[in-house]
Design brief:
The protein has helices spanning about 1-25, 45, 270-285, 325-335, 345-360, 370-380, 385-390, 395-420, 420-435, 440-450, 455-465, and strands spanning about 30, 40, 55-65, 70-80, 85-90, 100-105, 110-115, 120-130, 130-140, 165-170, 175-180, 180-195, 195-205, 210-220, 220-230, 235-250, 255-260, 295-300, 310, 315-320, 470-480, 485-495, 500-510, 510-520, 520-530, 535-540, 550-555, 555-560. It is an alpha+beta fold and about 550 residues long. A hairpin with a 4-residue loop joins strand 7 and strand 8. The chain is elongated, with a radius of gyration of 33 Å.
């Protein structure tokens, strides 16, 4: 009996040994103490030579705490490709801002581990023991210690010298960067926040949003799950906001509109929500149904005054300092022109046109000099044509008056030439056609010609390929009174020889008369008036940019608006 018991005990011990051996072989995990690594003087460029190659992905879990601490667990999942037996990985990070707490290597035999002399690059050399190797990095940083820098072109929107206790924009430079031979197949990002906070994740190179796969509350935490297929680093925007939501029905489609408003400005939330709904409905009539199923507008305390950015696919950031109907309509229109339809810099012209058109038709308190301001801004840069500006790398200071302001006004002029029905049908056709292919100025001209059945070469040559604008002057002005009526006659000359329809308004002591005349360089105009002429106003509704002036002839005021 004792022999049987001893034999059973021995068998159990042997079985336990094999189970334990298999378990350790399966997990094969090594914890590396980064603080004990010896320093090395390795060249990062040459280090990866002759390394095994991988297909790999990353899974990142980030915990944001109210005190500003970010605790991150990042796992690289490496699948070997090829026959090389030794693999090398270099992990760069911003020392001492980022504190590495733990580094684990699984399913691989460590050959060597070292750290750069600046303590900002970890070098790992290992031999994969299985097809799949995992490297897990645990680290911390405090976002209240950093400024919103390293943002690339997004820095034009963000005030990079400003810190805010309830909002932060984290650029890729604030997260470890992994250098490895191979191809990255995707990223997942799990963000855990206090429940009053929200996060938005965009691609750091294209600024396209990452896909929000899931959002849920768990106790006092908000958990957001994002995914992205390419290899670029994320740019993470987090903040404490109050949310205002509304579902808008557009024919057969529902669009969820959400405004993320700073807590101290929550009284503006419902008003902004109604404004955004009105803009979306109006643009859906003008340009076709809003192209996405949601529209998230983040009112940021970090953005520069009056600045905004349509990140794409339904996410917009606008400044909390000075955002208004103009800024909202400009950025929302990019959902059609720029995000959905690829038009390059022409998108900025159409967005400015959209803002002008919406403000003029929907705002109750439009300043009397609203169009004068736009016209004057467009004349600040006179030596570059729109066509050249669309293709050139101009500074924002030079580009703004041409591409934004003049371009917007020129599309307003085209609206006047074609009429509303044909003009907006042309814009809807641009949205449809240019979603699948990038459209330049030539293709846009062809689309407008097709929908209008007109040759518009004269218009595009004058307004897009020339830097000039009309310069009207009244000459040979006469007034003849006969049978109680006044016969007004004058020559109208354009010094820059444009062909354009022109509104002419005559103000008299009894009535106002408006005529629309085609001017091809020059024209003779005769108008019969019931009352005595007091003023002649050219382009009174400011459909085009021209040389503004005011003078008198024989006591009659001449105004070129």
């Amino acid at each position: 009996m004792k022999r049987i018991v001893s034999l059973l005990i021995l068998l159990i011990l042997v079985a336990s040994f094999f189970v334990g051996y298999k378990s350790s072989k399966r997990t094969k995990e090594l914890v590396i103490d980064v603080s004990t690594l010896s320093s090395s003087n390795i060249s990062l460029t040459s280090y990866l030579e002759n390394s095994a190659a991988f297909e790999y992905s990353s899974a990142v879990e980030m915990l944001f705490l109210e005190n500003g601490t970010i605790r991150t667990n990042e796992t690289l999942i490496l699948k070997t490709v090829g026959n090389a037996s030794t693999a090398k990985v270099a992990i760069s990070y911003l020392y001492p801002l980022i504190k590495i707490r733990n580094l684990r290597l699984e399913n691989a035999e460590l050959v060597n581990a070292s750290i750069s002399q600046g303590k900002d690059i970890i070098y790992l050399t290992f031999e994969p023991q299985k097809d799949k190797v995992e490297i897990t990095l645990e680290y911390e940083l405090n976002w209240r210690d950093i400024l919103p820098s390293g943002l690339g072109s997004l820095g034009l929107l963000i005030n990079q010298s400003t810190k805010n206790k309830e909002e932060v924009l984290l650029a890729p430079m604030y997260f470890p960067s992994v250098a490895i031979r191979g191809t990255k197949r995707g990223n997942t990002l799990l963000i855990k926040l206090p429940k009053e906070w929200w996060a938005f994740v965009v691609d750091s190179s294209s600024y396209a949003p990452w896909e929000l796969v899931d959002s849920k509350l768990s106790g006092k935490q908000r958990i957001l799950h994002f995914e992205q297929r390419n290899s670029n680093f994320p740019l993470i925007f987090i903040g404490k906001f109050n949310r205002f939501t509304r579902t808008v029905r557009l024919h057969e489609k529902s669009v969820n509109i959400t405004i993320y408003m700073p807590v101290n400005e929550s009284e503006k939330g419902n008003v902004t929500l109604l404004q955004v709904e009105s803009i979306v409905r109006t643009f859906s009539q003008w340009y076709g149904i809003y192209p996405y199923d949601h529209l998230d507008i983040v009112v940021s305390r970090l953005a520069k005054p009056h600045a905004g950015l349509n990140i794409g696919k339904g996410v917009i950031i606008v400044s909390g300092r000075g955002f208004d109907v103009w800024l909202l309509s400009h950025e929302i229109s990019h959902s059609w022109f720029g995000s959905y339809a690829d038009l390059g810099k022409i998108s900025e012209s159409l967005a400015t046109f959209s803002a002008m058109a919406y403000v003029l038709t929907h705002s109750e308190d439009v300043p009397s000099n609203f169009l004068d301001i736009s016209e004057n801004l467009s004349m600040m840069e006179r030596n570059v044509s729109l066509a050249k500006a669309y293709k050139s790398s101009l500074s924002l200071q030079k580009m703004y008056p041409i591409v934004y302001r003049k371009g917007g006004f020129v599309f307003r002029s085209l609206q006047f030439v074609l009429g509303n029905e044909t003009f907006f049908e042309g814009l809807r056709q641009i949205v449809r056609e240019c979603h699948y292919t990038s459209c330049g100025l030539k293709r846009i001209q062809e689309i407008f010609e097709n929908v209008s059945n007109q040759d518009l070469d004269w218009f595009f040559e004058e307004w897009f390929y020339s830097a000039k604008v009309p310069d009207y002057e009244v000459k040979n002005f006469t007034i003849v009174q006969n049978n109680g009526k006044y016969l007004l006659s004058f020559e109208l000359i354009d010094r820059n020889n444009f062909t354009m329809p022109l509104e002419v308004k005559v103000e008299t002591d009894r009535e106002n008369i408006v005529r629309v005349l085609w001017i091809k360089g020059e024209a003779r105009i005769t108008i019969e008036c019931e009352g005595k002429p007091l003023a002649v106003i050219l382009d009174p509704h400011e459909w085009m940019i021209n040389e503004n002036k005011e003078y008198q002839i024989d006591g009659v005021k001449i105004v070129v608006e």
